[in-house]
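Running low. Got one?
___
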Amino acid sequence: MKKTNPNPNANRNILRLAYVVSGVFVCMLLYLGYFLQFESGGVINNAYNPRVDLLSERVVRGEIQSSDGQILARTVTSEDGTERREYPFGSLYAHVVGYTGKGRTGLESLNNFYLLTSHVNLAEQVFNQFSGIKNLGDNVVTTLDSNLQQTAYDLLGDRRGAVVAMEPDTGKILAMVSKPDYDPNTIAEDWERLTADEEGEARLLNRATQGLYAPGSTFKILTLLEYLREHPDDWEEFHFDCDGLYENGEYTIQCYHGEAHGSQDLMQAFANSCNGAFAQIGLELDKGKFRTLTEEMLYNQELPLSLSYSRSSFSMTEDGDTWEILQTAIGQGKTQVTPIHQLLITAAIANGGTLMKPYFVDHVENAGGQEVKKFMPSSWGKLISAEEAASLTQFMSRVVTEGTGSALRTDAYTAAGKTGSAEFETGRETHAWFTGFAPAEAPQIAVTVIVEEGGSGGKAAAPIARGIFDAYFSE
């Protein structure tokens, strides 16, 4: 019988098909690996994922703890098996820890996957499975310091605003307070009142990450930086005579309460937060480069932040008119920033120009206290050069030693920062800002404070930062 050779074209087609199938299979494996590494937590945390309800039927939601072992959230089971989420500190951690029940917010939402995962030993899991007993979920140990959290909460008092503190060289969030607040223990009972918000208090809003404010004079940090970039060799020749009012054609800029600062060099103008000097500086800057700088500092950009946040905005373009330039240079106009964003800029300066990604969880441990996952510091990248960070630190130190940040002068440590008073509505008191770090020469903690309608940043916000620094270094 005579043999015939197979069709070579058919062989090639079969080979091509094999390559395609193999390629698809490899792509699926790669995507599966990517999904498990980067996306699985987000999917399981999605409120529309039914698997979450299945997990809660088999696992008792774990605890959320402070870095020093205080229980911030736990599940209490009654005799009839009914579970209730309890927050032992009430409103103290309301916005950062969040709540669960009426949806989920804060760390309750971010760590839903870990809290509903159990790493109790295998024998116990098997026994519980056959006995119809729920396994204990893992506990999330945060970076939050209970002493600093309480200090920030007490110092802000009954005023509206926010306080955030972090380690600039690691990104650990040490404290986060927003007021007015709410009690997560009674979120279900209070839901209609809180969401109706008839008094306009926005108690559910985390002002630390979602509150947008004019930055006021804290923005002069960026105006100063752009001026230093454009005048690297002659900035020390800057001079301005302040009589309390700066006039340019039909426009007038007033220093805070009309204070006349007199003869000012650049460092004095920054330390005294002279609006006139910085309004003049604003007119000299290259508007295109200025906008580029603000976007490098994450205005109009996404932040490396896991909690829900509002995006800060800088809207001035190269076509901006004189009034817009004057206002923008001193942190007014249309510029808006969140306290957490202000803190990230400050922390980057404190850390030699490198921004560390902020994070809230140190590690996850099982119900027996054994660590099952550890979170490590990671760098987002360089915002500014080390030389620029050193220069800004020098200017910000003078704010404390000789300027508006005098509330932070102490022999116990050095500090660097910037105060701000931001106008937001005619006839109402300004918002009070402070952002800074300590010690100035080797920063260990950075703090940003805003007090709504607090007036002077130096008198309302800086003392809160001082109290937090005092508490931190007393530890």
Q: What stands out?
A: Residues 356 and 380 are 5 Å apart (CA to CA).
